[in-house]
Amino acid sequence: MIHTNTLNHSNFNPMKFKLDFKTTLPHVAMTTAYDIDIDRATGVEMDTTVEIDPNHGTGGWYETYDLDTGGDRFYAGGILEVYWDDNGDVRLTGYDGCFELPEFITDALESKGVIIDL
Fold first, then answer.
1. How confident is the model over 9-48, as pLDDT tens digits?
2. What is the bridge-based pairing of β-strands 28-31 and 17-25?
3. Edge-to-edge strand order for the sheet containing 90-96?
4. What distance in Å separates the CA atoms of residue 63 and residue 77, rounded to the nearest whole number?
5. Mind listing the pLDDT tens digit for each residue in 50-87?
6. How many CA atoms lie within 13 A of 64 on its CB side?
7. For 7-44, b where at least 16 C-beta lie within 10 A, e where not — what string?
8. How would you classify the pairing of strands 59-66 and 37-41?
């Protein structure tokens, strides 16, 4: 959620970015909430997009899928719940769309200066 008092400051310029990247994961699994693997593979190349935007209802979103099948085999996507601190810091405070946000997505957010506060 965007801190509205912060957005009203005339000098405040909230962080906004979009990352598109590919990464090869050593292990990928599609697992149910009951910890049952539906599918698993090794050496999977994933195409990923992550966006932080104060104009997005929750502050951001993410999508990742395997390149071999265009996401038919492995896919995850959802929202990023982002909070802008008064000092301009950006915090990831929640997410939705998958049980556990993949580490390569949180790593990408951290590389852009987002504080992971889950």
1. 445 567 899 999 999 999 999 988 898 999 999 999 999 9
2. unpaired
3. 17-25, 44-52, 59-66, 75-84, 90-96, 115-116
4. 4
5. 999 988 889 999 999 999 999 999 999 999 999 988 88
6. 25
7. eeeeeeebbeeeeeeeeebeebeeeeeeeeeeeeeeeb
8. unpaired
Residues with Cβ within 8 Å of residue 69, at least 6 apart in sequence:
none
Which token pair is 115?
A: 């504080």
39 phi, psi to nearest 5 deg: -155, 150
53 residue type, one letter: D
* 3-class DSSP assignment, residue 18: strand
Chain centroid to CA 51: 7
* Coil, strand or helix at 2: coil
What is the reported pLDDT for 12?
A: 59
Tell me the C-alpha to C-alpha distance, in Å, between residue 68 and each of 39, 71, 79, 98.
14, 8, 24, 21
Structure tokens at 104: 């390569």
